[in-house]
Design goal:
The structure holds two protein chains of two kinds.
Chain A: E1 3-12, E2 15-25, E3 30-34, H1 41-48, E4 56-60, E5 66-69, H2 81-91, H3 98-103, H4 119-131, E6 137-141, H5 149-164, E7 168-172, E8 183-186
Parallel strand pairs in A: 3-7, 3-8, 5-6, 6-7
Antiparallel strand pairs in A: 1-2, 1-4
Chain B: H1 2-13, H2 21-37, H3 41-62, H4 66-73, H5 76-81, H6 87-114, H7 123-149, H8 156-182, H9 188-217
Helix pairs in contact in B: 1-6, 2-3, 2-6, 3-6, 3-7, 3-8, 6-7, 6-9, 7-8, 7-9, 8-9
Chain lengths: ~200, ~220
């Protein structure tokens, strides 16, 4: 099933930031979003993840198929690495956390409290969470922040494996992951024209 | 859902989790009151049910802003919102976890602390019953307030102001059950009112909390 976005406009605080955006993401494909800071990539990803409603247009094939990873990893510093991962696995009704530990090189850190990990290790644990969701569409916001080169390669490898298994990925990132097959979408041309909303947004 | 409850309980009892904060506050209030109002047992036993209830309410209030604030700060609230759990379920579990870590210890400690306030012997049962019935309402109402103020830096002040008036009915009927029980009067009417408040909030407020949380996460 494709993720299809048609004529989408997304708003931040009631002010549209991107508009007339359309794309289709097929299984096995990756789409990289590019654009300068503040161009609305995060807002777009949050809208697709279902955290905020679309300002205009429609999104198909999202909802329960999305695994979302934001800037913050959602880790509990007083829980160990396995406890953090196992919690998310249980929430998503999965059981096996071993492949995720292997894929992101978290072996040897299993019993460490997440609060004592380095920034890069925390990020790896946050990304490992994606693998225990069992969901086909990964929506990732700047996934490589604070990762070293080896970890970026490891992450690209995990994405590639996910694509090979029929999943898809939508990434906002500034660095080249070496995903040769990925399409690139620059959001700059879709910047919304300034306009005044006539509705009161607060309780929509 | 169970996983979320277990995680919250586990976090509460680990370092910095805040378990026992409400209980310690409750203990301090009830220990200090006799020093403040004097050792006259007649007066103390008359005000004991009300003091126990006010102490429990304030102790509950103390830990409310932690219900969602910590999850919001580290981003796990966003991730939970995209998880296959219904938002209503998440807020109910959060309220339940708050009650287990704050309300339940207060209920169990109240009879013991009643001794310090020379609570009449007939009052112990009714203090216990009224708190057991009333504290879930305090947690559920407090979760609603916490959902309203999530994302506000230092939202604790606003939270207290929002929640206090909502706590008044629970306090009135809860303390009335305890007072009438202690004086050996019939407790049926306030007890039924208290039960009505508790079950009513339990049935309705999770939907309101989920709705405001969705708006606040945007």
């Amino acid at each position: 099933m494709n993720l299809t976005v048609r004529d989408l406009a997304v708003a931040r605080g009631g002010v549209p930031v991107l508009e007339a955006l359309s794309f289709t993401l097929a299984p096995g494909r990756a789409l990289v979003l590019r654009g300068p800071n503040g161009s609305g990539k995060t807002t777009l990803l949050r809208t697709i993840a279902g955290l905020q409603p679309a300002f205009e247009g429609e999104i198909e094939g999202a909802g329960e198929r999305i695994a979302y990873a934001a800037h913050s990893d959602g880790l509990k510093s007083m829980l160990s690495v396995t406890e953090n991962l196992r919690f998310w696995a249980q929430v998503f009704a999965q059981t096996d956390i071993e492949p995720a530990l292997d894929a992101f090189d978290l072996r040897g850190l299993e019993e460490r409290m997440a609060g004592t990990l380095s920034a890069g290790q925390k990020r790896r644990l946050g990304l490992a969470r994606l693998m225990v969701t069992g969901r086909p569409v990964w929506v990732l916001d700047e996934p490589t922040v604070s990762l070293d080169t080896a970890s970026v390669a490891r992450f690209a490898e995990a994405v590639r494996r996910h694509l090979a298994e029929g999943g898809s990925a939508l990434l906002a990132t500034h660095i080249d992951l070496g995903l040769g097959e990925a399409q690139v979408l620059d959001v700059t041309p879709f910047k919304a024209a300034p306009r005044v909303s006539l509705e009161d947004e607060a309780f929509l | 859902m169970i996983a979320l409850l277990l995680r919250d309980l586990r976090l509460a009892v680990r370092a910095g989790g805040g378990f026992g904060l409400g209980l310690a506050f409750f203990l301090i209030v009830t220990v200090l009151i006799p020093f403040g109002v004097g050792p006259e047992t007649g007066l103390l036993s008359r005000i004991a049910p009300g003091i126990l209830w006010i102490g429990a309410l304030l102790a509950c209030l103390l830990s409310l802003d932690r219900i969602f604030a910590l999850d919001w700060e580290d981003g796990s609230l966003d991730l939970l919102a995209t998880a296959p759990l219904p938002m209503e379920g998440i807020v109910t579990i959060k309220a339940l976890a708050h009650w287990i870590t704050t309300g339940l210890p207060l209920v169990l400690a109240a009879p013991a602390l009643g001794v310090l306030l020379s609570l009449p012997p007939s009052g112990y049962l009714w203090v216990l019953v009224s708190l057991a019935l009333g504290t879930p309402a305090l947690s559920v109402i407090g979760t609603f307030g916490a959902a309203l103020t999530v994302g506000l830096k230092r939202g604790g002040l606003l939270l207290s102001i929002l929640v206090l008036p909502l706590y008044v009915p629970t306090l009135i009927f809860g303390a009335e059950v305890a007072r009438r029980g202690a004086e050996g009067l019939a407790v049926q009417t306030p007890l039924l009112m208290l039960a009505g408040i508790s079950f009513g909030t339990l049935a309705l407020l999770p939907f309101a909390s989920a709705a405001v949380l969705r708006i606040n996460l945007r």
